[in-house]
Amino acid sequence: MIAKTEVKEVGIYRRSATVYRAGVAKLEAGRNMLYVSGMTKTADTGTFLLKFPPNVKAANMQIVSLDDAIPAEEKESERIKKRVADLAYQIDTCNYMAELKKSNANFSYRTNITLSEQQEYMDKLPEQLLALHKEVKELTEMQEVLGKELDEVAKDEAKPLILAEVTVDEACEVPFLLQYQETAGSWAPKYEVRFAGVTEPLSVSMKARIRQSSGEDWKQAKVTLYSGNPVATDKIPELQSLQLSFYEPPRPVMQAPPMNAFMGMAAASMAAGGAQMMQASAAPMMDMNAMKMMSAMQTEEATVSEEESMTAFELPGLRDILSDTSGNLADLKNFTVDAKYHVLCIPKVSDKCFMTAEIVSTDWPLQPAKASVYLKDIFAGEFYINPNSDTDTFNLSLGNDERLTVVRTDLPRKTQEALLKNQKKQMRASRISLVNNSSESVDVLIIDQLPISTEKNIVVEKLVISDAAYNEETGELRWEIKAEPKKEVVLNISYSVAWPKDKQLSERHVKMKSVSSGSSDISDSGEGRTCKCGQRGVTGKFCPSCGAVMEARG
């Protein structure tokens, strides 16, 4: 017999899902050959798990196809095909009768029919043809419905079945559970950040965008989302010997660099678990002013719990997770976070000013994700939030601030030679002009820089930095000022660079160790860490591939 199952519960990871299905099997006393349906074509068939009541003994379980379960003539698809063929015959018959009636209306070669009989025939012909036309239309519509049904049935019949030999002492109906890993399920976090004013904390709503393309809709299922992925791996670390030797510099060889020095690193593969079986117990339109007075719709949050290696978000109630759609959204968590608001200007990079919220990294213990930002319920844009574990704070952009105008001008460089020291010395200067065009004062953070020497023979000497906070390690200049209405703020920067006159200077921009603006990039002084999922070079607190929390550095 074939026992059907329904989805009852789903545990969705960042890149896979665990599906729990329930069914009932009608068994005869003794040995039964039970075929269990439900797994999709995208399921990992090597991970299925069947659970029966204790009175059921099961053995010899394997993955089979429908052809192994029933004869071809007993398939539902074959029954539908026969019905479609019968309809096609009826349609052909109706069309033949219509053409025959039309040809019989030609009386030119018939002499044994009276004029009254001819008139009677012609009077009835339109009604008869109309009846045949309606019948053909109805049969065609039935044929189209059956065609769609045939497509769905064919998809179901192509799915794998589980064959299990089960034994019971007496005839009975028993419930059972089927569990397996679904490869076509995933979810990703998404934030909504709302700014109410500079005296209010940011209001954050963490949501989940759930996707699945298994080909079936998960209807009225209990859904739990997990912040990571299953992390079991078959690769056990090995300790290699450490050898010391004298360094010998390589001999220079003039040759072109190889086209592909490195072809990439393969991600660590997950070990597929073998098929298993466990014995267990079954289980009317209003005006705009009125609409603006309305508050945002309140939705029930998920229940959050900390598992051994990840966070679980249990969604309230039962949900429909539709296949092949991006409209599966769920609310996970709402919270507020304190922020220091200011306008950020980096005129050396951009002539735009950005309203930003400076947030303490530990106050945002969530995964990197896109965020829709709203300024007093007005959509400001979508940004990527990625708090960096190696910095105390990070800046979240709240969009362009058009109240301010900033211009940075580089003045002509002056170079002179110092013959006694065999050096060149260059004077460099810049001017930053900031104007507040609004009617209220604005807190502004302006960032610029001085170059950093990486050679002892290159000497950088700061001259004028207009009371900026100077970071000698990174060369960063910071001004935290209050821009008064309709007034101009002028900042001057000047410094000198001295170097041997027989050398040429090379300027190269590298990422600073601290995150100055935005939060879409992360930096790290090392090569990063390797996540349990196999992702290499991770420098933030969360793995960008699976979302798992990275272990702290030793």
Give descriptors for this structure.
4 helices, single chain, Immunoglobulin-like, six-stranded mixed beta sheet, mainly beta, 554 residues, 15% helix
Q: Could you characterize what this model shows?
A:
- The structure is a single chain.
- The chain is 15% helix and 40% strand.
- Residues 254-298 and 514-527 have low confidence and may be disordered.
- The longest helix is centred in the N-terminal third of the chain and has 43 residues, at 115-157.
- Strands 2, 3, 5, 8, 11, 12, 13, 14 and 15 form a 9-stranded mixed sheet that branches. The protein has a 6-stranded mixed sheet with strand order 21-18-17-25-28-27, with no helix packed on it.
- Among the domains are: 76-156; 404-500, Sandwich (Immunoglobulin-like); 527-554.
- The chain is mainly beta and 554 residues long.
- Helix 2 (76-104) packs antiparallel against helix 3.
- It is built from 4 helices and 29 strands.
- The chain is elongated, with a radius of gyration of 37 Å.
- It has helices spanning 66-69, 76-104, 115-157, 288-292; strands at 2-3, 5-12, 17-27, 30-36, 43-52, 57-64, 161-168, 172-182, 185-195, 202-212, 218-226, 276-279, 303-306, 311-314, 319-321, 328-337, 340-345, 353-360, 369-375, 378-385, 393-400, 404-410, 414-418, 423-436, 442-449, 459-464, 469-470, 476-483, 488-500.
